[in-house]
Structures are given as structure tokens and as C-alpha cells.
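Lecture 7 notes: from sequence to structure.
We start with the chain below.
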Amino acid sequence: MVLFLTGAHGFIGHHVAQHFSKLGWLVVGIGHGAWVEREYAACGLSGWLNGEISFANLDLLATKFGVPDAIIHLAGGSSVGPSMVSPAEDFRRTVLGTADLAEWVRLHAPKAAIVMASSAAVYGAQHASAIKETDTCVPFSPYGYHKRMAELSLESYAQNFGLSVANVRLFSIYGAGLKKQLLWDSCAKLEQGNAVLSLGGHGTELRDWLHVKDAVTLLASALTHASDDAPIVNGGTGVATSVRAIAEHLTNCWGGGQTVQFSGTARAGDPQSLVADVSLSHQWGWQPQFNWQIGLAEYVAWFKDVQLKALN
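Predicted C-alpha cells for the same chain:
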């Protein structure tokens, strides 16, 4: 079985490649990033193409490795922040890249199932309780709008041309290896030895933290549910956790006795609450295996190990 993995060079991509290669799939990656063979092979990839998702590049992969049986689509914009700075670039990567992928599949691999990693950012900022997949989408950032556009593009191809599609709206993904966003930034500040960990926002913001390994198993489950109905499923745990609780537990895991303070100014594009209703994923038979307390302890240990190796 051949799996095309877009965005394989990213954080989630590494884990997806390892998961499917261990299951015996031939995993081929495409996306952005310089990667020598020994590095991508160590992640479980049989091939890697550093480039845009284009007809020419997809044709190259199909010629060399065969037409894909499945595609997990991780490529596109990565978060709210960069989309606020460069919205046109985010649009090109997320919306146009997805449209080109869908059209290529329609013409050259119509039996391939497509699972796209979308985002809870499509829901926007107006939700105060657990969000269902059927709730109204009012995105609050270019990133959220573009993910919703990409979802609709795939839904269109599913309904009009019979492609098998599923969209997984991931919430707050974390895990060892993630070198950006709240956990990485907080650990970098803690490493400086300051007595206070200073963060933006209010600390009351609620998030649903999903370990990357749980995200991978949900993406894999979505492949078995992909259809021309283009199902959408939330990728979360259903557990609402405040940013303050995350930050304080992180400092406890760090072990330096630091206190946490917040600026009181929210970042543009950040909603107050993003927590998943996980009824549908549970109906699929999927359950998360990691709780965030254990996951944060693992993350801190990994961060300290990375910094120690850098010093040596």
C-alpha cells in the first residue's frame, strides 16, 4: 500500500510517517524542507520530494513509487500567527495546494482516500462550550478561513466526483519534538533562569490538548471512514484546560519554582475557548491514550535533553 504524505517534513508528518511505515506501508513525502535520505528514511519515508504540491511533482512521485492508495494531507499553513503576517502565502499553501491535490487525485488516483488535517481554528471565537462538528464556523483568522476553504474544496470533489475524503479538525497538538508555540516558547524562557514565566493573554483561555501520537491514530482511523460524504471529525480529547494550568504544570515539571504571570493582552486571532465535542470520534471507536499532565512531563524532559545535547 502506497501512502502519499504531504507536509511530511513537519512535526505531525514525522509521526505519521513512522506510524504507517511500521504498519508496512510505503510512505512517500512531499513538502518543504531540505532532507537527506538518511534523515527522511529514519522517519519512515521511502522517498521525499522538496517542493510544492503540483501536478508535476505528484506525477514524479507516482512514476517512481506508484499511484497512491491513500493520501494524508498535512501541508499548508501551520498556525494563526504566520497567517496574520503573510495571509496571501497562507492562502497559496493551504487553499491552492489542496485544490491542486484534489484535482490531481480526480484525474490520476480517483480510488485514493484523502484525509486532511484541518484545524479547530475554523470554528472561530464565539464558542463557549464543547464544539460539535455541526456547529457554525466563523473563523477568526486567515488561517481558520483558509482551512475551511480547503475543507470545502475537498467536500466539493467528494460530492461532485466521488472522491473519498475525510477532514480531521485538530485542536491543540503537542508532544516531544514540537519546536514552536506555547510549550516551546515557555521552556525557552524557563531555561533562561528567570523567577517569573511571563506569557501573553489572560491565562483563562481554554484549550483541548491532544498528544501528537493520538492525533496520528485519529488520522489513521479517518482513512477508514473517508467517503464521498466527506465526514468531518474533531481531533481532541474533550478535556478543557486553561492556559494557566498548562503553564503552571510546565513550571512544576521544570522544577525551578518559577511563578507564572500573564500580560492580560490576548494575541490577535486567539479565541477564548477551543474545546472539542468528541462524540463522533468515540463512535468511530477511537480514544486518546495520553493525558496532558504526563505529556507535559515528557515534553520538558525532551526539551532539556535537546538543550543538553546542544551544549555538548
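Points to note: The chain has eleven helices and 14 strands. Residues 87-108 form the longest helix (22 residues).
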